[in-house]
Amino acid sequence: METYKQFTFEAAHQLPPYSGLHGHSFKVSVHISGSPDAKFGWAANLYELERHVEALRLQLDHSYLNDIDGLEDPSLENIAAWIWARLRPDIEGMTHVTLSRGIDGQAEGCVYRA
Ligand SMILES: Nc1nc2c(c(=O)[nH]1)N=C([C@H](O)[C@H](O)COP(=O)(O)OP(=O)(O)OP(=O)(O)O)CN2
Ligand SMILES: [Zn+2]
């Protein structure tokens, strides 16, 4: 079974020489794989993920990403790897993190797997 949790955040960044200062709505999906719980069938209890995901969301939301330690070059791929590295110690069975920016149908994104 695989369980996932999504969160969104609004943030500004720049990626010289490709882009100057601007902002995006980002969407993150955190995927956890595991044997189904005998009673509830889930791979992970979403309540147990909540505090870890929420702590990250609060750090990222309404931030200037370039100012965050480890995000000096905030490409999609570097942000996804940064999220993975911070959740990894706390979320057993995490298989991948997806990150996208923009609206459905016009989004750009990436998938980070260990
Ligand atoms: N694989 C990637 N390639 C590129 C990335 C990236 O994160 N991953 N980022 C960039 C630059 O940021 C580029 O300037 C993109 O600018 P951005 O405004 O973030 O995205 P759009 O050009 O699509 O702008 P819209 O406002 O959505 O039109 C280059 N390559
Ligand atoms: Zn951008």
Chart the SSEs and their pairings.
Blueprint: E1 2-15, E2 19-33, H1 46-60, E3 63-64, H2 76-87, E4 94-101, E5 108-113
Parallel strand pairs: 1-3
Antiparallel strand pairs: 1-2, 2-4, 4-5
Describe the structure.
The chain is an alpha+beta fold. The protein has one domain: Tetrahydropterin Synthase, Chain A. It is 24% helix and 39% strand. It contains two helices and five strands. The chain has helices at 46-60, 76-87; strands at 2-15, 19-33, 63-64, 94-101, 108-113. It has a five-stranded mixed beta sheet. Strand 1 (2-15) and strand 2 form a beta hairpin. The longest helix has 15 residues, at 46-60. It is elongated. This is 6-carboxy-5,6,7,8-tetrahydropterin synthase. Its EC number is 4.-.-.-. GO terms for molecular function: 6-carboxytetrahydropterin synthase activity; metal ion binding. Catalyzes the conversion of 7,8-dihydroneopterin triphosphate (H2NTP) to 6-carboxy-5,6,7,8-tetrahydropterin (CPH4) and acetaldehyde.
What tags apply to this protein structure?
114 residues, alpha+beta, Tetrahydropterin Synthase, Chain A, 5-stranded mixed β-sheet, binds ligand LPXRUNBV, binds zinc ion, 6-carboxytetrahydropterin synthase activity, 6-PTP_synth/QueD_sf
